[in-house]
Batch of 4 targets.
Target 1
Amino acid sequence: MFSRERNFNEWHLCGFGDAPAFLFDTLESTHSLMKARASAGDIVPGTLIVADTQTAGRGRHERTWASPAGKNLYFNILIPLEGIPLASAPQITQVASLTFAEVFRDLQEVSNAQELGNRDIGKVTVKWPNDILCGKHKFCGILAELVYIKPAASGSAPQPAISMGVGINVNSDPADYAHLGRAVTTLRDICGQSVNREKLLQSLIASLERAIGQFRAFGISPWVAAWRKMDQFIGARGTVVVNNRCTDENRDSGTGAIKKTGRIIDMNADGSLLFECDDGTIETVYSADLEI
């Protein structure tokens, strides 16, 4: 995983079930392209789209996702929902974040064993609903959306799928994020050495495909148990941000958001958050941001 990587256009990749992978030197957004191609019926479930850089990468609530060239991973995977109820589809992002976090933590442990990892930076962990952090710094973002794939045959119903966009800060430098005005962590910071992006992506896709198969068979319950072991924030104070329309411009003011401060009690069996507000009320939160 720490070997020297090949040129980007030489990477050998595939999606789920040997579905094709498409590599682009530059894209506005892998997420936007995947949505457009799914709607047009130009791709099959399991397809993977990868960009070496994005000119308009976005995260949750239209926040900018900085995408320096030749250093990080920016990709979208079209996850088929066959055998998965639509009501359970949002839980896929939690399955993905935990699966990816386990891959990252394995890398961190290998680096620590080689005495190369940065032990002062903290452990790779997860934060509800689908953030992956080291310490309190997020370095992997996941953005998922339900899409419908246009069928090849006329008269057939569109096929639902999850278009999952992922951005990972792998080998980038602090200077790449100076314009954001906030600290950013990368896998290279965590591991103390550069990571082969091709091999990392191969591992992430293979791990996610196995995880989705397990989720299809057993539901979210096993993942909730694993999440509780990795989540370092259960029991801590936090702020639930509901109906958050925050952008880069109004991030600090919180304009357009309803914020409730209190204590994180637990993650429920269905993947929702159990939260105790400062006024004593206990709420079950299904969709929101969580600030620590």
Target 2
Amino acid sequence: MSPSQRTVITRTLENRFGGHAATYLWLGVMVLLWGLSWPATKLALGTVPPLWLASLRFGSAGICLFVFVAFRGMLRFPPKKDWPIVASMGFLQMMAFTGLGMIAMTHTDTSRAVLLAYTTPLWAVLLGWLLFKQEPSRRQLTALGVGLAGVVIICSPLELDWTNSKTIVGSAFLLTGAVCWSLVILHIRRHSWTASPLSLAPWQMLIATVPLSAFAYFLEGAPTGIALDRRVIELLFFIGPVATSACFVISAEYGRRITAFAMSNFTLGVPLIGILSSIAILGSSITPPFVLGLVLVTAGMVLAAKATRKPA
């Protein structure tokens, strides 16, 4: 083998494995930031009302994405064919999932909130069966049964105080938000994209911010009473521009470089980091029923991801 051939092979290997290393590194950063955003949100909710926090999150993240997309020369008004997915992600994933989730977090523990919120793969299997007649495979049925068993344990009197109506309502809001997100997942699978997801993201955040701000104003009052000290501003910056807009860019840029199956496995780390960081930062308590529910829900999500893996 000539020196020139060895050089070409070496550079090819470096580009291939170096590129993979960078991809996994950035996706790891994304998962870490998404997970840490849960305790950060809980801390911010001590000062900022939930709907205003959701509005500030997507408002600030949307502004950052508008600037970023414009800088890259990608800023366009969404094509007509993409408006259904813009509305779906804006109203269901961002407005409903986040709004309901933040209200719920004022009534329930952060560890339980993040786990119930990330049951979306289970509901996607169930809703695909009910709405689109997609008969689940044996693996999917197993995943659904195992995961829902974990949800039942977490929502049972063994883990939740059923005499506290706010706790029950909070859990119901989290599961409703997860169902809304699963509907978006099913929509994404069937949508034929005209524009890139990254170029549509700021418009989705704009669609979410407007109604969230309206609901916040009528239900929580004007935001003039929010005490914005340095600590709160730092939390808002992390939750919005960092953990939302920056992570969306990472997901759009690097998520497409790996398979959907690998990306599903990566995002399974978000609830685990959210739970562990809530224990470390917030002092969240962990009970044996919760641990059992966590194991079952995580196993169900892993099985659901494997069941939808496409052959090479």
Target 3
Amino acid sequence: MKTAIVTDSTAYIPQEVREKYNIHMIPLTVILGAEVYEEERDLTAAEFYEVIKTKELPTTSQPPIGKFVELFEKLAEKYDEVISVHLSSGISGTYQGAISAGSMVEGLEVYAFDTEVSCMVQGFYAIEAAKLVQEGKSAAEIIPILDELKETSHAYFMVDDLSNLQRGGRLSSAQAIIGSLLQVKPLLHFKDKLIVPFEKIRTKKRAMKRIVELLGEATNGDSYYAVIIHANREEEAKEWKAELEKEFPNIEFSLSYFGAVIGTHLGEGSMGLGWMKKRE
């Protein structure tokens, strides 16, 4: 069996890493006024944060089914099966789109995987799947391993301003709770595939400290991958990474970013940290 790995653009896996592991990427789209951009192809994160300074908040869209079908048909020429790794189905229809498109393509078995998260933590799943393919494992063997990794995977993030999440309908919570959170720096996370408040914290500094506490509790000295994710705050993210590397020598840290689609909903200045246990 020849197995292909697909993920969407919100994993924000660098192109050189995608090429190294032969990971295929399908982009979500960002609509800015009359212009439609394919994320990570037509519009980089840096370009996005520059553009939104002078334009209204954009909207975002999942990949059209036709784009999925086109990619899967192309892959069917060389592969027997595909593992399609996507952002949480609770905030996007992309995962469901992969399932629907897979049913339309003959000669290719499509296994869609809902990471129940997004950004580079989603990327960890795609990279691990690609490594397992290199080890000779089939999709039927890989999916249960990804499910096991899900038990060790967490992501927490904070936003400077909740209004984007409110407007985009991506923050799942009672309006009263949202209202009270507007006065603080809420710590958010994914729960049951949705973005929900984790704790109310008054300052960004305290929120970051709390995330570090959660990282220490979760990893408990074991070997993990972790990623610091920022929305146009690269220097701040680099400084945080340097601090964390000293504190947690058992963890392999990397840097990533909230790109155009996720950045539309979280807003500039957001910061997050996610992790996943290394396979033994």
Target 4
Amino acid sequence: MAGAPARGRQAEHSVGLSHRVIHGYRRAYRIAGEGPAILLIHGIGDSSATWGDVIPELARRHTVIAPDLLGHGASDKPRADYSVAAYANGIRDLMGVLGIEHATLVGHSLGGGVAMQFAYQFPERTDRLILVSAGGVGREVNPALRAVSLPGADLLLSTLRLPGMRRQVGLFTRLIKLFDTDLGQDADELIDLVDALPDGTSRSAFISTLRAVVDWRGQAVTMLDRCYLTQGMPTLLLWGARDSVVPVHHAYGAHAAMPGSRLEIFEGAGHFPFHSDPVRFRALVEDFMSTTAPADWSPERWRELLRAGRPGSTDGAPDPAFDHAVDRDLREASERSAT
């Protein structure tokens, strides 16, 4: 749910931005390669530049599309609906404009929630799901994001951009890195979040997006109650073991709730495993693409799953250490569902 660091932008110029106007708003995106489509969806405050280290290699065998979500990057930032459902609609419309009928969706943080929502709204257009440190599968989230959801957030973000504050924040960043905290793993990316909000329009879009999914108690939206619908949908979960934004136990909860999903943990990595180890990230994505067939969706199968509803317990034997967390989040799901 955070911004793009400089290291994630090293290769951004190798795949330049393109633009299309959809519903009167300019949408920026990167597109490269040929083959089965992969759609990369960034997190809150980020942009398509965050995928700069992985796009060129993935584009060797695939058509790779990486949009700047509305309100982010070089896309327009209107006063608009910034809910995950609205973002899913925007992804569908961009795919329609580009002539992409279906794709494998790779979603990071907020983008993971958008990818899950897309698969829920448009299962017939979703080949696979790859969720990277995804939001929407548990309540916990970094306290800083909860704070920014409160009234007065615009003033707080404006203050952080003052010259003197930038130096103090830099000192704090070096300190938490020195003590090898989990937050230190993501410090550079989280600080760049502020740098990516240079004006009031950008800050307003960021706050609107955040408040659509986070409140003072934590994440306010979940897909956990509908994860059983991914049965038959190839799903890969990728997570950093030291994620300071979305705790790694959310990965285990999602894995338990998604029948047949695969789980890979990046030891030592934070919220951005595709920055920490882009080579491994690309290898896992390419292996997953080559060893799974696209989801075989049908109205009949969808109807069967809906009528059966969420199972009382998952198949197999999830790690007992995470059972309590999964049960808790499932109980909370009814009040946090996104329709």
